[in-house]
Amino acid sequence: MASSSSSSTSTWSFLITLICIFLFMGLSFAGDPFKFFNFEVSYIDASPLGVSQQVIAINGKFPGPTMNVTTNDNVVVNVRNKLDEELLLHWSGVQQKRSTWQDGLPGTNCPIPPKWNWTYQFQVKDQIGSFFYFPSLHFQRASGGFGGITINNREEIPIPFDLPYDDITIMIGDWYTRNHTSLRSTLLAGKDLGKPDGVLINGKGPYRYNDTIVPDGIDYETITVHPGKTYRIRVSNVGISTSLNFRIQNHNLLLAEAEGSYTVQQNYTSLDIHVGQSYSFLVSMDQNASSDYYIVASARFVNQSQWQRVTGVGILKYTNSKGKAHGPLPEPPQDEFDKTFSMNQARSIRWNVTASGARPNPQGSFRYGSINVTEIYVVQNTPPQMVDGKRRTTLNGISFVNPKTPIRLADQYKLKGVYKLDFPTAPLTGPPKMETSIINGTYRGFMEIILQNNDTKMHTYHMSGYAVFVVGMDFGVWSNNSRGTYNKWDGIARTTTQVFPGAWTAILVSLDNVGVWNLRTENLDSWFLGQETYIRVVNSEPTNKTELPMPDNTLFCGQLGKLQKPQDISYATSMRGNGSKFSFMIIMLVSAIFVVFQ
Which segments constitute the Plastocyanin-like domain (predicted)? Predict the structure, then answer.
């Protein structure tokens, strides 16, 4: 008996010693912290506009949880796909530095099959700000699956305002009571989606501010705040195609940040937030608490009388509030046919060049206005048109076709014929065509892109992998003389910019991030029909310093589908860098415990 007790004591002493060793190794290999998330993506039934429908939830929630991380954190997201179709999650605005493999788009990743697990691992290197994630395949974003991403400053980096009392994330967006498969079928049949059925605020329908317009029984968003406190409110337009004007009754919105850049702080009574854009405001709760206040997100550039039902309404409630919100909603800008006000508002959003961003040096220390441009692309869209017998959208006369083998994977395995490096620098003059045509970017080049919107509706354009400098926008057709209007000092650096109908927007981008990066319209219907391309940036001297190796858990498809083994999903965790060491330690520790107790 004594021998057995001695043996047990000896065993536990060994385990404790082993654990201490591994913990010490973990500290030695730690570097930047790891943040872990588990996402189970599934359908749930919900009735955000009073009509029961199937929506896409993350961990049973719609919208999904906000990912709260800090500059340079290593983010590990284990995704379980419980949908009945393939899935990719895109981290919109996260630049994926050196890690195009994790971008979650069909040009870089094979999809996660139904019932499979897959783990994303990326670092939010040298970034701060407000962003969001969403499913990037099959029009799924129209059914949900989105949530916020907050990247906080490290403690040692000062922020250019007093620390707010709390942080609030708000997702706004147009919404249909049909699910994404029905909407997708409508587009594939060559039809428009028509007017949305409403606007959601954090996945909920409008407060019943008007008994005639809003039916009874709809759940609405309520945000409770403390009087006298200042909150940082992060707002993202995660909708399909509708620009929204955001406002809070009787409260000023002090703009502080736009998609990872601190802005010159300016007060707005309302701000236009276009599809795919994110902002954060400082809002002081300095009003009388005699009643609650409306939070409003309403459609822009439409006949308000015909679009009254397409309005999101939530409630801002002080903890000492004495009554319900009442009366008419705060007025939106009255300029249905004149977009000058909105454009001037967009131009007023400027970079805070003296503030520190993710690093201690001022944002303005990168003097983009003094860098020589090496590549110029005039990228023009058009309204939907027939291409090869199908209703499609185009950029420069090309309707993009996603290859069955992702572009980055094709490069890795030196496959030929998957894509063409022939995207035109200006609009084609011949008939439009459907092709996998991409831009050949020069590593460490400085590219000027002019986005010319020849459509009749507002578009926003997003570029993965980078923050781009928005240096100019105006109505009419861009010309070389337009460069005289560029802002070469404090144009905002962001990931998504608006381009007004019949107008242009110019952006500058420093191509210092190796990979394959998506350039697309954020209008989901136009994106689905082909209005995108990719920019391929290659370092001719491959090195892990400019691009990380292909992850161990890479999925294979298309021409490489034969390389995919079913059992790979059991180990669908990315292991590289510090993560590899950490994973290795855990495996060794579990193995040691297993051996000891045999």
Answer: 41-155, 167-320, 405-540
